[in-house]
Every structure is written in C-alpha cells, then in structure tokens.
C-alpha cells in the first residue's frame, strides 16, 4: 500500500511527461538490470527511482557506494545501483 502511494506520488510529479512503455518481464523474472543500463554515467540526484524500479521490474533499490558494507543475501526483487565517490552510477545489477 505504501509503495503504491509512493509510486502514485512519483507519477504526479511527472505530469505532462509521456510515460515510457515498459514491456513486462518474462514469468519468473523479478528484476532485469539490463533494462536500466542507460543509467550508467548519470548522477544519482538525476535518477527517477520510480522509473528505475518500473523499468527493471524490481521492488526496491539499494545504492552501493564505494567502501560501503553490503550484505551478501540475494534478492530477486532488488536493483543494486553502484555509484562512484562523486555519486555517478557505474553499474546496475539485480540481487
């Protein structure tokens, strides 16, 4: 419920922008980082989290900064966005 409200709020913030069509993921796939590789090279502040979630199919984003401690658990519904020390996205992976 909360996630739905957050996504609705994100959608309200982008009124006037034509929504990008996102094809559904195949059955059994909950996150596909290849769909958000266009984020590489963009500053973290310029990324629309709702759009990244929608395009990847993930339910949650984890930002991974240099030197940060990261759990090794694998989650099929999580998008990991790696950023460098200045906050530029360097990689996108699911897990």
Question: How would you characterize this protein structure?
Answer:
With 95 residues, the chain is α+β, with helices and mostly antiparallel strands. 21% of the residues lie in helices and 18% in strands. It contains 2 helices and 3 strands, in the order ααβββ. The longest helix has 12 residues.
Short summary:
This protein has 95 residues and is of the alpha+beta class.
Structural descriptors:
alpha+beta, single chain, 21% helix, 2 helices, 95 residues
SSE blueprint:
Elements: H1 2-13, H2 49-56, E1 60-64, E2 78-83, E3 89-94
Parallel strand pairs: 1-2
Antiparallel strand pairs: 2-3
Distance between the termini: 23 Å
The unreliable regions are 1-16
What shape does the CA trace take?
globular
What structural class do you assign from the helix and strand content?
A: alpha+beta
Record the strand order, biggest sheet: 1-2-3
Q: What percentage of residues falls in helices of 4 or more residues?
A: 10-25%
Largest sheet: 3 strands, mixed
Q: Whole-number radius of gyration?
A: 14 Å
Order of helices and strands: HHEEE
Strand content is 15-25%
């Amino acid at each position: 419920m909360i996630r739905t409200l957050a996504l609705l709020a994100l959608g309200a913030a982008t009124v006037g922008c034509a929504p990008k069509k996102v094809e559904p993921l195949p059955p059994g796939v909950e996150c596909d980082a290849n769909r958000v590789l266009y984020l590489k090279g963009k500053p973290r502040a310029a990324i629309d989290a709702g759009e990244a979630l929608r395009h990847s199919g993930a339910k949650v984003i984890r930002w991974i900064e240099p030197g940060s401690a990261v759990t090794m658990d694998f989650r099929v519904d999580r998008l990991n966005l790696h950023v460098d020390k200045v906050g530029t996205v360097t990689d996108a992976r699911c897990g």
